[in-house]
Amino acid sequence: MAIKNRDDYLQALKKMRPNIYKFGERIEDVTTHPATRRTVESHAIAYDGANDPNLQKMFTTTSMFTGEKIHRWNSMMQEEGHLISNMRLKRQNYRRTGTCTGGVCVGWNAQNVMWAVTHEIDEANGTNYQERLKKWILHAEENGLTVAGALTDAKGDRSLSPSKQTEPDTTLHIKEIREDGIIIRGVKAMICSTAAAQEVFLLPGSVYGEDDKNCALSCVVPRDIEGLTVVEATRPSDQREFNESGIQEVPDTGITQGWLLFDDVFVPNDRVFMCHEYQFTSKVITYFTANYRACIGACVAGQGDVMIGASILMARANGLSSKTFMSKLVDMSVNNQVTFGLGAGALAIGKKHPSGTWIADSLTAHTNKVMVATLPYEVKRLTQEIGGGIVETGCMPSSKDLDSPEYGEMLRKVMKAGSCSTEARVKAARLSEWLTLGGGIPGCMHGGGSPDGAKLVVRFTTPMEEYVDYARKIMNIEEEIQDPQKPLKK
Description:
By secondary structure, the protein is of the alpha+beta class.
């Protein structure tokens, strides 16, 4: 079993059936098309890390099943240290790419979560889901796969459960159970890095009751499986990403968010890990969100590190010393460390599931999600503030205008400010813009779920009455002091 390299990964993607669309156009080769090549490059950089002597320890590990060297993102996480290694890898990926690499992230978490959940289902029902999952994990290890993870459904009317929707396809569901597998249909929405993935790990997107048992499904499918169409979403920097001339206006890396349309897709039994076991969907959500919301603190910290660097570049490109903004830069660093440290803390005080999977402390992990949905936006605001008006969308001419034979020379002359060239200043400004208004936005607010959902978990996992007892005992208050009852309406 060999560690895959960049070329292995790119060639594997080139061999896949083209089933990804953007702007109504089918993308024949995700490794070269402007709409997808940047997210592919982000993931290729992870393969570079696995083959870099200085980074190998971070990007590779040993299989608990075979004892062989594998990519870390295909591994089992059975100690808090394994999950902290997950965080370090994520932060390093962001430092190297400035953006999300979901294909070496979400599917990794999904397989570990389902390792715990299949253990519980098998124990309760006598099924063999975990053995199926082990077979697939060995396949992923051997082939060094990138695996996107898909939880979020289109959902439809948020006030109605899936079985009450007028359009059943708003939630991915089991349409038919056959002797040799299942037929699934519906939509997973806003799924990160599908274009860069070789497979997609599907999980139930919510907690379901018996009426919605058709939505209680987990399986893994090749990204190019028959019946699956991926539609890539648009974002503010698209126009510049498609610009092939002039000064580079976006990084060579990037992110994609796909809508996954499943049109009667057949999944064989050996790739199915949950089928109608609605009683266990709460466990999937609980375990997944705890680990994911802990580790996402590393993602935003890593991108925040890049924003600090971009802000210093912009200050200097504007002719100012970065020391002028040192208090703001320190505030940015503090915010980065809060989300990273909270995530690591959630892992450190977590616990081992009977299956061996390590699960983060839910209260601390969901607290981190609330911070992830707030602090990075302050870092982005400070990046904009330090950079000046030139980094805001709509404030800078395009590279084509800078290259114009009629007026480009004048633009270039007046846009030079500090000791660096106009080209360097423009690139630095576009990076700050991209980090704060373009490819850097997805994942902070709703990545891994909404902050309101996280606050609900914080509410129900904080032992409020226990804290009341602490307060009473400190002051020797013997009587129970209850919340006042609402008066009955007449």
